[in-house]
Structure formats: C-alpha cells, structure tokens
C-alpha cells in the first residue's frame, strides 16, 4: 500500500474477528517492531507475543479501564523496554509499537495501543501486574500492549480535511501557514 494511504487508513480497532493470525503474519509484525530505530542503537526494546486467550484475558485485567480491544483480540504484543540498557526506552518502545501498528494495517489487520505505563489495575500499577502475569524481570518497563487481529468493525480512514494545520508552526511558534504564505498572529 502507498505510505500516505496507509497513514490515512490506520485507525484504532477495538473489535476483532474470532480468527487466529498465522505464524507468518506474527513474524512480519515483530520484524517491523524490531527494525524500528532505537537510541544509540541500544536495541532496548523486547516483545512478548501472546496468542492464548486465557493469558490475553489476564492481561486485560492488568488495567482497570481502556482495555476493550483486548476482549476480542486474537493476538497481543506486549512492548517492553530494558531500563538498564536505555534511559529513553519509552521513546524506543513507542516507535517500535507504532511501526507494528502501521505494519498491521499494511497486512490488512487492525490494532489498538493499550497503554500500561502510568496506568493502574484495581490493585496496583498495570506494569507490575503485567510483569507478574508474564514473568518479566523488574528492570523492564512495560509500555503498552498492542491488541491485534482481523477487523470486525469499520472505522472510516482519515481524510485530508482531518489534518489540523493550526498545530503546525513555521519558523516561529506564533506563525502559521495561510494560502501558502506564512502569517503571524
Ligand atoms: C500513547 C497512547 C496510548 C493509548 N492508550 C489507549 C488505551 O489505553 N486504550 C485504547 O483503547 N486506546 C488507546 N490509544 C488509542 C487512542 O485512543 C487513539 O489512537 C486515538 O483516539 C486516535 O484514534 P485513531 O488511532 O483511530 O487515529 C492510545 C494511543 C496512544 C498513542
């Protein structure tokens, strides 16, 4: 798919069909995540692929809200970062997750980012809960879980009109682009 179309088409999908992903699809997704750039090329990001429903359900309970996407996802990819390898593991892991979301769309799949860092379950931090469910050592931060699967809802792609140009400044903060001319507020 053309890259500009891919960017427009990717939307968060939270309802998935009851259909497993193939090993090849999962391989393509993790390839995208592992080839994303990392600070100082430290490669601090690691991925945990979960495709068994019981464990996906346990992951869902690691947060008190915002986890609808995990209810029907046939695959969850937990994105973690080694905080001893990189002081910017959050950025590294975010880029990795974004690459995988774009690759998912490219493969005709849907995905949604379920935030775990700085979030809580009914009991404690979501990060600790996920660490317990998946035996992740303490030094790893848990950024998010990508819920992935075949789309079972239709969310309209973005249109050119959705681009909010007021968030772009030219040269200085108080300038903006109007009919191809830079103007000042
Ligand atoms: C850092 C980050 C955290 C997010 N956390 C959640 C989340 O916990 N649960 C959820 O359903 N969606 C989550 N999302 C998805 C956003 O709600 C979604 O990207 C946003 O509403 C824009 O919609 P779109 O993805 O269709 O463009 C998150 C997205 C980002 C980038």
Fold and architecture overview:
By secondary structure, the chain is of the alpha+beta class. It is built from six helices and six strands. The protein has helices spanning about 5-10, 25-35, 55-60, 70, 90-105, 125-135; strands at about 45-50, 75-80, 110-115, 140-150, 175-180, 180-185. The strands form two sheets. Strands 1-2-4-3 form a four-stranded antiparallel sheet, with helices on both faces. The protein has a two-stranded antiparallel sheet with strand order 5-6. Strand 5 (about 175-180) and strand 6 form a beta hairpin. The chain is globular and about 55 Å long. Bound molecules: flavin mononucleotide (FMN).
List keywords for this structure.
binds flavin mononucleotide, two-stranded antiparallel ribbon, alpha+beta, 185 residues, NADH Oxidase, four-stranded antiparallel β-sheet, single chain
